[in-house]
Amino acid sequence: MTSEERKQFDALEAENRQLQAAIKDRDRFIRGVVMPYLSDEIMEEVIRQQDRIHIGGERREVTIMFADLRKSTELSEKMDASGFITMLNHFLGEMIEIINSWQGNILSFVGDAIVTVFGAPRENTEAARDAVACAVAMQRRIPAVNEWNAKEGYPALSMGIGIHTGEAILGTIGSQTRAKYDMIGRNVNLASRIEGFTGSGQILISSETMKAAGDLVVVNTAGEKWVQPKGIHEQVLLHDVVGYGSHRIRPEV
């Protein structure tokens, strides 16, 4: 090998080492920053498609959950930014842990709202059951969240959760330069509207979810109500969930 060839070889070796280091840095970033907020299913989908993003989707019956903090805008205006974000991140961390344990896949954070799908990208015949059980577990975790808040000098939080089961379009949406796994459709909008009817600490579900979730769902029949969601032509019957199996969020009911 000539001296010129040796220089070229050394340059290629150096470039290769830099590339490998960049790949390791990227992987550390993904696993350290992104993975805590994604389920294993969606992370596998991202990794599988990282070299060839396919823009497309499918229609599938899923269960959709919207969970939203109450009076968060008011709190954000009263609290300093650092304290509010610290409090919000602690709350989200607690909820993410529960959602992942019930096979939910978080698709996005809309402000302080968590948008989750059950039954995609991997099919789950018990998606409705898992969603309701997950929502109950989330509401049952709020007292522990508020205990931590009190110790840190933060205000108490409350949350409303709406759940609906129906067909949605799911898939990778966007372009080759920026894309995400997401869902769209009438039933996604309806799930969001259902959440809007909830009060503090309440879980409301549609009749479709009620039927699919099974006998272990505990409801307060006195809390059932017919509503007319914005953008939906027909009235919708909502069921007030107070527990799943022996786990209750309102023991007095």
List its salient traits.
7 helices, globular, alpha+beta, 253 residues, ten-stranded mixed sheet, 2 domains, Alpha-Beta Plaits
Outline the fold blueprint.
Blueprint: H1 3-34, H2 40-48, E1 56-69, H3 72-78, H4 81-101, E2 104-110, E3 113-118, H5 127-152, E4 159-174, E5 179-184, H6 186-196, E6 203-206, H7 207-213, E7 217-219, E8 225-227, E9 236-244, E10 247-248
Parallel strand pairs: 4-6
Antiparallel strand pairs: 1-3, 1-4, 2-3, 4-5, 6-9, 7-9, 8-9, 9-10
Helix pairs in contact: 4-5, 5-7
Summarize the structure.
By secondary structure, this protein is of the alpha+beta class. It has 2 domains: 3-35; 53-248, 2-Layer Sandwich (Alpha-Beta Plaits).
Account of the protein in words:
- The protein is built from seven helices and ten strands.
- The longest helix has 32 residues, at 3-34.
- The model is unreliable at 29-37 (pLDDT under 50).
- Strands 1, 2, 3, 4, 5, 6, 7, 8, 9 and 10 form a ten-stranded mixed β-sheet that branches.
- It is 45% helix and 28% strand.
- A hairpin with an 8-residue loop joins β8 (225-227) and β9.
- It folds into two domains: 3-35; 53-248, Nucleotide cyclase, GGDEF domain (Alpha-Beta Plaits).
- α4 (81-101) packs antiparallel against α5 (127-152) and α5 (127-152) packs across α7 (207-213).
- The protein is globular, with a radius of gyration of 22 Å.
- The protein is an alpha+beta fold.
